[in-house]
Design goal:
The chain is mostly beta strands. The chain is built from 6 helices and 33 strands.
Length: 519
């Protein structure tokens, strides 16, 4: 048991926490702990005993701000929770109590640690209607504490505090735990879900942890960030940075912690935060790093998760720890698929090639496909938007695209057909913000594009209508067959020339025949 005096010195604040009921001033009294979380075993130790009376002109030894109408503890003696050896060492209880407010809290805390009995004055481990009740307690000053944290669930911690029992009271446990949060840093905002990162793009993450309000009660405090990514994300190990935030001051630190990394996990361990003097209960700890969306990224649902929990000390009297509720972010990516159709047969047409561009900072940037020179693929790495042509040479894929504005250009056109006009389209993801897992769930895609004779309407392909994956954007692109017109100097002119020669021949024959007849 450590630092109990800090709680004793908080009597003035804690005094305001209790609620008087119409119980007899002579006792015995009941302490009701308002806590809806199961798994606690509360022990109470009587530090001081005494008589209950109305203050009047008397000042409570341990509370100089006592009002004249308050109930106080007078004639203070040692309580039943203190060892006899400690009593003998410290002498008169009232005299010792009067010195507590003037002494160094750390020094007195160590005295009390060895002064309490092993057996509590009263205890309870049964909760009913969100309350724990400890009955049959005589008047006095009591320390209330959790026996251990073995049965506590997530987002819970042990508690210990001191109360003045001069009536039956109800109190709220003085427990506090850290909070964990996780964000994707996207441009000038922080989000929990994003569809703006294609395969090959780098995502910046921020892990945020706070400390409990009773951080000062601990002699040692363990604090561990545990971050795990799905297989579709690869951690950049060299990008990890740790910061302390106190007020408006954000300072990077490089000591006092260890970090362990793998492709899909990051652990930042503070074995004892107390070794860092600039940390207090109001300090926020931030871990920043980047990860790349890789070729194994899930397309559409369920997305590419990234989950954080913080392990933390949760009992001032032991090395036990708890963990926060998992905090999750998601990154979504998609595929683009289209068939090439001939206008004259309405069948698949082979022989084409395509290039995909994405608008970045207002400019079209090549991201994948066959360039206009027809010689090279723009995506030669594993982690990029992959350009794939099926065996029929008429079905094309761009795998791993994100939200954004795109332009699709036909760079090689089948013989006898017209090259299509470049197709511009925009992909926008739609989310459900009511998802119970906090990180929002993808609910659909909106694809805006002009529908023409060459390009059919963009839709989302779903093989399972009951459980759609929202993974693949599909459309059909048609090549229109070229048209042949009569050309000058062609067959039409030749025919007229031949007919002219024949007519001239006939005219010559007729002329010669007429001359003979005249002779």
């Amino acid at each position: 048991m450590k630092k109990y005096l800090k709680m004793i010195l908080a009597f003035i604040m804690i005094f305001a926490m209790y609620t008087n009921v119409n119980a007899k001033m002579t006792g015995p009294f009941t302490i009701t702990i308002e806590n809806s979380k199961e798994g606690h075993t509360y022990d109470v130790y009587q530090i001081f005993a005494g008589d209950v009376s109305i203050a009047g002109s008397t000042v409570d030894t341990l509370d100089p701000k006592t009002l004249s109408s308050d109930k106080i503890l007078s004639n203070i003696t040692w309580g039943a929770g203190v060892k006899d050896s400690f009593k003998s060492q410290k002498g008169n209880a009232a005299t010792y109590a009067a010195t507590l407010l003037t002494r160094d809290p750390e020094a007195v805390a160590k005295e009390l640690e060895s002064g309490l009995k092993d057996t509590p004055t009263g205890s309870t481990s049964t909760m009913s209607n969100g309350k724990y009740t400890i009955s049959n307690l005589p008047a006095g000053y009591y320390l209330i504490k959790d026996r251990n944290t073995a049965d506590l669930g997530e987002d819970d911690a042990a508690t210990e505090y001191v109360i003045r029992l001069v009536d039956s009271i109800s109190v709220n446990p003085k427990t506090s735990i850290p909070t964990a949060d996780k964000k994707i840093v996207e441009d000038d905002k922080k989000v929990e879900v994003s569809s703006k990162y294609a395969v090959g793009d780098t995502v910046k993450y921020e892990l945020i942890g706070t400390l409990p309000t009773n951080y000062d009660y601990y002699d040692s405090y363990k604090y561990i960030f545990k971050d795990n990514m799905s297989n579709g994300l690869t951690l950049n190990a060299n990008s990890v940075k740790v910061y302390l935030v106190n007020g408006n001051n954000k300072t990077e630190i490089t000591e006092g912690f260890t970090k362990n990394t793998s492709n899909q996990s990051l652990t930042v361990t503070f074995a004892n935060l107390k070794t860092i003097s600039s940390i207090n209960s109001n300090t926020t700890i931030i871990v920043e790093y980047t990860a790349v969306v890789n070729k194994d990224a899930v397309r559409g649902l369920p997305g590419n998760d990234n989950t954080l929990v913080i392990e933390y000390s949760n009992n001032p009297d032991s090395d036990e720890t708890g963990e926060t509720t998992p905090e999750k972010t998601r990154v979504y990516v998609f595929n683009l698929k289209f068939d090439k159709i001939a206008s004259d047969t309405n069948r698949l047409l082979d022989g084409a090639q395509f290039m995909l561009e994405r608008k970045v900072n207002g400019r079209w940037t090549k991201v994948s496909g066959i360039d206009t020179d027809g010689s090279t693929s723009l995506c030669t790495r594993d982690n990029c938007i992959k350009y794939v042509v099926d065996a029929d040479n008429a079905t094309f894929h761009f795998n791993g695209i994100a939200e954004g504005e795109y332009r699709l250009t036909e760079t090689v056109t089948p013989d006898g057909y017209n090259t299509i006009t470049p197709v511009e389209f925009t992909v926008k993801a739609n989310y459900d913000n009511t998802d119970s897992e906090k990180a929002t769930i993808l609910r659909g895609l909106t694809i805006d594009s002009a529908e023409t004779n060459e390009v059919a309407k963009f839709t989302v392909e779903e093989e399972d209508q009951e459980n759609p994956t929202i993974s693949t954007i599909v459309t059909t692109i048609t090549n229109i067959k070229g048209i042949q017109l009569p050309l000058t100097g062609g067959m039409g002119t030749t025919i007229f020339t031949i007919i002219g020669i024949i007519l001239m021949g006939v005219a010559v024959v007729c002329f010669v025949t007429n001359k003979k007849e005249e002779m």
